Amino acid sequence: MEWGIDRIMKRSRFIGELKPVLFTLPAMIPFVVFWLAPLLYVFYLSFTEWDFMSPEKTFVGLTNYLDLFSNPAFYKALRVTLLFCAGSVLPVILIGLGLALLMNGKLKGSTLYQVLLFSPWVTPTVAVSIVWSWIYEPEIGLANTVLDLLGLEKIGWLQDPKWALLGVLLVTIWKSVGWAMIFYLVALRNVPTDLLEAARLDGANAVQKFSRITLPLISPTTLFLFIVQIIGALQAYDQINVLTQGGPSGSTRTLLYMYYQSAFEAFQIGEASSVAMVLVFICMLLSVVSLEVSKRTTHYQ
Question: What pairs with residue 48 in β-bridges?
C-alpha cells in the first residue's frame, strides 16, 4: 500500500515538474525552429567553404575566422559599426527624451506633433531612404540648397567619405526619435506626482527634481531603449543599401553590410557566416554589459 502511494506521489511530482515545460512548449517551438536552429547552422557554416551552389561543403576549420581577423577591411567595418551604434543610439535616446519632456508639458497641439514625429517610424525604411537620397542630391537637393542660402559650402553628403556616415546617421536618427519619444512619454506620465510635489515642498528646483526623481524612475525605459536601439543599429541595412551601398570607399560599410556582400555578391558563405557569428557575439556582449551596468543604475518602482 505504501509502495503504491509512493509511486503516485512520485508521478504527481513528475507531472508537476513537467507542466512548466508543456506551457512553454508553444513558445519554444518557433524559437528553436526560426532562431536557434538557423543560428547553429550558420555557426556550422562558418567552419566550411561553400558557394551556395555546390552540393558539398568543404570543412576548413578556423580558416574563415583567421582570414577574417587578418583582413583590414574587417577592422574598418567593425570601426564603422561601432561608430554607427554610438552615433545613432545616444542621439536617439537624448533627443527622444528631450522631445518627450517638451510634449509632456502644456504644449498646445502636442498630440499633432507627436503624430508627426512618430510617423517616420511607421514609414518603411526603404521609402524614407529614397526621399532622403533626393534631399542629399548634390546639386538640387534640399540639404545643399539650405547650405547655399546660408552662404555655406555644399557638401557631398553621400559621395564624400568624410560625410557619408553622417548622412546615413541623420536618416537613422530622424526615423527613430519619435519612437523613443513615445516610450519616454509613457514613462514620464507614470512618475508619481506626489514624489515631485514632496520634492518641490522640500525646496528642490526643476533640475534637481529631474535628476534625482524623474531620471531614476524612467531608467528602465532608458535601458530598454538602449538595448533595442543597439540591436537595431547592428542590424541596420536598408538605409545603407539605398543611400550608399556601403561606400564611398567603405566609409559606411558595417559588419552586417559586409556579411551581405560576402554572402550574396561574392558567394563566400563560410566567410559571411564567420562575420555573422562575430556580429552575434558583439550584440550579446553589448547586451550583457548593458544589463550589468543597469544593475547599479536602473531603479524599478
Answer: 59
Strand partners, 49: 58
- Residue 259 corresponds to which cell in the numbers above? 556579411
- Distance in angstroms (rounded) separating the CA atoms of residues 200 and 194: 10
pLDDT digits (tens, 9 = 90+) for 143-170: 999 998 988 888 889 999 999 999 999 9
pTM of the model: 0.86
Segment 48-106, tens digit of pLDDT = 998 888 888 889 989 999 999 999 999 999 999 999 999 999 999 999 999 999 888 77
Burial 15-33 (b: 16+ CB within 10 A, else e): eeeeeeeeeeeeeeeeeee
Residue 273: other Cβ atoms inside 10 A: 23
| Residue whose C-alpha is closest to residue 164's, from 92, 244, 81 | 244
For the chain, how far is it from start to end, CA to CA, in angstroms?
A: 53
pLDDT per position as a tens digit, 198-223 = 878 777 788 888 888 888 889 889 98
Percentage of the chain lying above the pLDDT 70 cut = 92
Question: Nearest-CA neighbor of 179 among 100, 286, 67?
Answer: 100
Q: Quick check: 133 and 239 in contact, CB under 8 A?
A: no
Length of the chain: 301
Q: Which helix (H) or strand (E) holds 284?
A: helix 269-297
In contact, 146 and 231? CB cutoff 8 Å: no
- Going from the C-alpha of 112 to that of each of 115, 120, 133, 144, 180, the distances in angstroms are 5, 14, 27, 29, 17
The helix/strand/coil state of 58 is strand
> What pLDDT does 2 receive?
46
Find all residues with CB under 8 Å of 168, minimum gap 6, and list them: 84, 239, 240, 243, 244, 252
Cis peptide before 248 (omega within 30 of 0): yes
263 close to 183: Cβ distance less than 8 angstroms = no
